[in-house]
Amino acid sequence: MRDNTRRLVAVAATAATLVAAAPGAAQAHDSGHHEYGKKYVKVGYFTQWGIYGRGFPLAKVQNSGAAAGLTHLNYAFGPVTATGECVSADPWADWQTSFSDANSVDGVGDVAGQPLAGNLNQLAELKSKNPKLRVLISLGGWSGSAYFSDAALTDASRKKLVSSCVDLWIKGNLPGLQAGVAGGIFDGVDLDWEWPGSAGNTGNVIRPADKANFTLLAAEFRAQLDKLGRGTRKHYDLTAFLPAAPAKIDAGFEGRKIFKYLDFGTVQGYDFHGSWEQRSNQQSSIFVPRGAPDNPDFSVDNAINAWTAAGAPTSKLVLGLPYYSQGWTGITGGGNGRFATATGPAKGVFADGTEDYKTVKNLPGFKLYRDWRAGNSWLFDGTTFWTYDDPAQMRQKTRYIRGKGLGGAMMWSLDGDDDNASLTKAVTAGLR
Questions:
Q1: Which of 179, 272, 281, 401 is the S-S candidate for 406 at Cβ 3.0 to 4.6 Å?
Q2: Is the pLDDT assigned to residue 199 strictly greater than 80?
């Protein structure tokens, strides 16, 4: 669920187009070395809009203890415009709104006339509290990727896009404010183009040339970030959010080439199935469960194997983990509820069919089921089914990450965790 309304991911491809890679496919191990030394990266997404209805300011990331366990925080999202430039999706949230004492990272509320307010000022405070934390601006997202294809089409358009992104987010030249006021807040760029060469949100521009142009766009970001870094004596990270579906990998990404420019890529490890379907299922299982009705099917291991088969170095693949559930209701027939016909999506607080971990874990009347062999858990009360990851499931996934030689974990998104950051703490404890 990577959108401020609802993300019905385009992984609902037909089984014929999945061509899932078989477990055990050849992997591009590189002696186990990670780009950040021997530390695993732990990337948490913070949503710009979370400060509204969800009431989730960055102060909660700090006060829950989540920030202390992260290596990276991705701020989502900065859209790409029809004119091929980077802009703010919400300047009020980004640098205008003020935070009270209780909602500020440093415990001191904003005052009138200060040079910078909003989430960006809170990010600066978070970095002050956590000096090793790297903050990246995530570009695109499900609803902000419509014009990536146009912006990546030519050398001139790529240079224009990257220059505007670097100027706005990395150099911190915000419209209407003092030049460079937000400089130094962002340590790099996360490319969330969903998806080059294949369908994403309705209305997205898509071209067969997107596959080669994604590589060229990554190369242009790397070149401009490195040029800036030579002056600031700083390395700027470049990462990308990558799909799980082998068909989408093949349509949009030159697996071996793109990692010449990326510090790492985060692989979608969720939304394998969801409430857009009429049958309850897993959304983030490590392996395909026995008895699964779809063949081939999605799983974490199939997604990772597809990327390594495409030439991606294993140590630069970071596994995405969901902090929310997919749910169905109207299930009859008893049993444990899995792979059962449903009448529709389960009721959710912000969108039907999805629910935050912090809410699902407290639902009354549900029985917990686990499939340790597949790496999947769910809740069922006889009628309603929620597939979800709890701390125990996260610990199993960190063991998978370590055993597979991956680069770390990514979490979408931090506002789905409980007040004690139970999921984040389970992940960070498993990836010390």
A1: 401
A2: yes
Distance between CA atoms of residues 400 and 404, nearest Å? 6
Residues in the chain: 432
- What are the residue boundaries of the structural domains of the chain, listed by start? 15-323+390-430
Nearest alpha-carbon partner for 75 in 162, 192, 172, 158: 192
- pLDDT attached to residue 38: 58
Task: Supply the pTM of this predicted model.
Answer: 0.92
Q: What is the mean pLDDT of residues 341-345?
A: 98
Rounded to an integer, what is the distance from CA 341 to the centroid of its chain?
29
Active-site residue identified among 35, 85, 194, 277 = 194
Nearest to 263 by CA among 90, 49, 74, 47: 74
Sign of the Cα torsion 363, 365, 371, 374 reads negative
Average pLDDT over residues 25-47: 60
Burial of 8 (0-12, 13-18, 19+ CB in 10 A): middle
CATH class of the 15-323+390-430 domain in this structure: alpha beta
Non-local CB neighbours of 144 within 8 Å, separated by 6+ positions: 77, 78, 79, 80, 89, 192
Contact 109, 167 (CB under 8 A): no
